[in-house]
């Protein structure tokens, strides 16, 4: 794990939350993107070297919609940047963590992503992120 890549926050309204986070961080988002595979719209903000991702469900059956229904808006996941996501998935499986998707998939912000089940990470959903090299 190289660093915290971003913190993901589940929100009911991306439009309203973008206004709030622009005021909070003193800067506008740098990207809005739909991730159809996950049924989510995202907005990314920079805060120094760190990033915040806002996630809004586009489908009432999506993971984000279910998260908000169960827990309300708030921190959804912490993402860590990795150099080689396949190697990191294998390492973490060997360490006893439950990987939710053993093959990385395309995520937002030009990343390959994989997730660790929160039951094996003290209740925190962990995302692994690797930059996609074009």
From TrEMBL:
GO terms for molecular function: metal ion binding; methylmalonyl-CoA epimerase activity. GO terms for biological process: L-methylmalonyl-CoA metabolic process. The keyword Transmembrane helix does not apply. Residues 3-131 form the VOC domain. InterPro entries: Glyas_Bleomycin-R_OHBP_Dase (IPR029068), MeMalonyl-CoA_epimerase (IPR017515), MMCE/EMCE_epimerase (IPR051785), VOC_core (IPR037523). It comes from the Bacteria. The keyword Disulfide bond does not apply. Keywords: Metal-binding. NCBIfam families: metmalonyl_epim. Belongs to the methylmalonyl-CoA epimerase family. This is VOC domain-containing protein.
